[in-house]
Amino acid sequence: MTRRLVLASASPARLQLLRQAGLAPEVVVSGVDETATRSPRVAELVALLATAKAQAVARQESDALVIGADSVLEFRGQPLGKPADAADARQRWRRMAGRSGVLHTGQALFDVQGGAVARRDVAVSSTTIHFATPTDAEIDAYVASGEPLQVAGAFTLDGLGAAFVRRVEGDPTGVIGLSLPLLRVQLGRLGLTITEFWDR
Fold first, then answer.
1. Confidence (pTM)
2. The predicted structure's pLDDT at residue 34
3. Below-70 pLDDT ranges, the chain
4. What are the positions of the active site (predicted)?
């Protein structure tokens, strides 16, 4: 019988991504206070946040594979999570236009057996994003849509923001919120295969 797969995230994009990949996770929101975690390096920060989310949900489980994930855009060395408000999103886009950033997604996979974490695997997917140069009117319209206020870095690849991304170097699924190729590798390191979790 296939093990239960639990997504420790409220992100609809992550859930949709897993479903499109043939997986059927249950969703348990971690409730982790993301502002309490700090690190001087963005890649380390997302790994710590993903681990905290997976750990919080793993404590509630007796037998499951728990996936925690977190994404942050690194732009000119600074971490950019979700914008504080519309003015913040607008200002970010005016700074990012025509430039590049790195979207880091941390993933923590916890194997819970008998009410305890038996094994864990934590890794980070990093993808370079080359932004287009939208006009002020396009930026205003995008911010008015509300989409950039809900996501790390104030952009998406699976929504309206895709029109404002010129090129991606790396894994696009990691930018959407959860790297599927990395998840396959993580499962493999725990002696599992992604195909055994296909919902068929």
1. 0.93
2. 77
3. 1, 200
4. 70
Whether 165 contacts 103, CB under 8 Å: no
Provide φ and ψ at 8, rounded to 5°: -90, 60
Where in the sequence numbering do the catalytic residues fall?
A: 70
pLDDT of residue 200: 65
Enclosing domain of residue 73 = 5-197
Which residues does residue 121 pair with via DSSP β-bridges, in sequence order? Answer: 109
Q: SS3 string of the chain?
A: CCCCEEECCCCHHHHHHHHHCCCCCEECCCCCCHHHCCCCCHHHHHHHHHHHHHHHHHCCCCEEEEEEEEEEEEECCEEECCCCCHHHHHHHHHHHCCCEEEEEEEEEEEEEECCEEEEEEEEEEEEEEEECCCCHHHHHHHHHHCHHHHCHHHCCCCCHHHHHEEEEECCHHHHHCCCHHHHHHHHHHCCCCHHHHCCC
Per-residue pLDDT tens over the stretch 19-65: 999 999 999 999 888 777 888 899 999 999 999 999 999 999 999 99
Cα torsion 55, 61, 67, 71: sign: negative
Residue type, 172: P
Count of domains forming the chain: 1
Angstrom distance (rounded) from CA 27 to CA 7: 5
Lookup: tokens for 77: 């060395």
Domain of 134: which CATH number?
Answer: 3.90.950.10
The span from the CA of 149 to the CA of 163, in Å, is 17
